[in-house]
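Our preliminary data section would be incomplete without showing what the modeling component actually yields. Below, a chain of 219 amino acids is followed by its predicted structure, encoded as tokens that our downstream tools consume directly.
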Amino acid sequence: MVEISTSLLSIKDDSVKKIYDLEMAHTDYYHIDVMDGKFVQADTTGRMLEYTNQIKQVSNIPIDVHFMVQDINKHIEEYLPFSPNRITFHYEACKNKEEVEGIIKKIKENGIKVGISVKPETPIEEIYEFLPFVHMVLIMTVEPGKGGQALLTETLQKIKQIHTCREKHKLDFDIEADGGINLETMQEVKEAGVDIAVVGSAIIDSENYVKMMKLLKEI
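Predicted structure:
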């Protein structure tokens, strides 16, 4: 069964209630989309810090932080007090191999699992050398920056590729997909080989979180 990391990006009001309702619906993770208005156009920095603080007050479900930011180190420092389960950063936000390695090291040294993410146009082979050192690879199945987009079907091949690479080299990391995942697309994402699916508006905009979560997990 694919685990569900519910994105809070689509929440507009009653955030504490919705966070609590997601726990009652048995989401596996809360997905925190941190955008800085530079790496992507949107800026969610204040809102996501607020939501993360609320989660820590009402829930023990793991927090899955996804940085879509230029200054990764600055945002790591902001989220360390919340002890997230994992922090994922974008490969494209790093200037060179040394910076990628330094960020992986910093996150791990703070007792947090580390994920590396790639945009749809980035060749997956570019991150192969880092795979033995991360806990997760996040494949963006839409262009990062806003919720509610349709899944780009060509990104499914990337998921299959990274899954094959993991099996071939006997590596130990989760594969997460993010963007456009709903009742219509979950099956193909699952078949491509994901372990964790980030689902946002399909859950947040539904009338019944418990029912929607159950339907998604049963696929």
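The chain is about 35% helix and 20% strand. Residues 3-218 form a domain with the TIM Barrel fold (CATH 3.20.20.70). Preliminary results of this kind motivate Aim 1 of the renewal.
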